[in-house]
Amino acid sequence: MAAIHKLSARQIETLPSGKHGDGGGLWLNVRDGGSRQWVLRVTVHGRRREMGLGGYPALSLKKAREVATHWRTMAKAGVDPVKAREKERRDALRNLHQFADVARDAFEARKAELKDEGNAGRWMSPLERHIIPKIGKVPVSEIDQIDIRDALKPIWHEKADTARKAMNRIGIVLKHAAALGLDVDLQACEKAKALLGKTRHVAKHVPAMPWQEVPAFYEDLSDGTVTHLALRLLILTGVRSQPLRLLTLDQLDGDTWTIPAENMKGAKGKTSDFRVPLSTEAQRVIEQALPHSRNNLLFSGSRGRSPISDMTLSQYMARASLEARPHGFRTSLRTWIAECTDAPHEIAEMTLAHATGNSVSRAYQRSDLLEQRRALLERWASHVTGLSGQLVKLHG
User: Fold this and answer.
1) 165: domain CATH number?
2) Band (361; pLDDT cuts 50, 70, 90)
3) pLDDT(391) > 60
4) What is the pTM of this model?
């Protein structure tokens, strides 16, 4: 092997323009302007390769020899050092992706799965409020359980539901990063949970109005406004507020309202619409609401271009000094069914669009029990309007 370490640190300072070999393929290229650049020449698979290592004095003689030794060893193993370095640079650049950037890319990839394509901002909200301000600029490949723990610790017990959602989103972002080819710790969230411990937060249910008090409240909704009529139909049908607010005239067909699958809770993966039987009272409410309809929406906002806001219904009840909220009328209905009827469990749950049984039994249950539910909701309407308080016998 040719002699190596031919140059000295003192000699380098006075070398004239030209190429000066240190041995083993390491050269110092001195340009006319005085700048000095280290270059390594190696042979791989019979092909000569030349690569710049860096400038002197930023890269000292000692360091240049160490770098040269590393790449010569790679070349002897049959690895092209030029391609290997390019790959290292690409990997380094990839791993510089910041958490915030990957989070937004993950959100864009999942928009089609979210309600209204995530335009409400609920998917990103836990990250933007509690995570991105703290670790948004950290390369995603460097994020570990300590970072996640420190970011979530202030809200882990005080805002447990938000913290749970944020942890879920972080896990999705890390999986998205891994799919991009980034080197991330996919177990970081589980490790962070172990460090944070169990939450002390007790989940609170949406306040519901006792079913005995619903008739009096229903009677007060008598001024014929969009808000009053929307609340009346919400009570009578037991649906969630979103499908009610998005109710369009083409969804109505006589005594049946067909809710599109995409408007139902957990719309992802749902392919079938949900039929809601309309009681005689519900049909009367719809007739009263028709003059207010705008742009095919039965319950439109004040300007007529968008649906009535969910907050409109909630704020109405809050201004009335009621603890109960619109969503709670589903509980009112379900409790009335349990206490005042002998409706089978399956009919009761299907009335509220709840899934029943396991996946196998649901696959064989093709009926939506529409007529049985129609009878049940007709009885509920009688109770709500004060016409009947007697025990309902319903066999399914």
Assistant:
1) 1.10.150.130
2) very low
3) no
4) 0.55
Average pLDDT of 158-162?
A: 89
CATH assignment at residue 37: 3.30.160.390
- Residue 116: pLDDT band (50, 70, 90) is low
Clarify whether residues 226 and 297 are in a common domain. yes
Q: How far apart are CA 224 and CA 220, in angstroms?
A: 11
- CATH number of the domain bearing residue 251: 1.10.443.10
As beta bridge partners, residue 275 has: 258
Q: Do the domain assignments include residue 2? A: no
Q: Is there a single domain that holds both residue 313 and residue 374?
A: yes
Q: CA nearest 3: which of 31, 35, 26?
A: 26
How many alpha carbons fall within 13 Å on the CB side of residue 321?
A: 0
Residue 368's pLDDT is: 81
Per-residue pLDDT reduced to its tens digit, 2-30:
578 888 888 888 888 999 988 888 999 99
Cβ within 8 Å of residue 315, ≥6 positions away: none
Residues 162 and 217 both lie in one domain: no
pLDDT at 394: 46
How confident is the model over 291-327, as pLDDT tens digits?
999 999 999 887 777 889 888 999 999 998 999 999 9
| Contact (Cβ atoms closer than 8 angstroms) between residue 262 and residue 209 | no
**At which residue do the structure tokens 């995603």 appear?**
140
Residue 347 in domain: yes
Type of residue found at 58: A
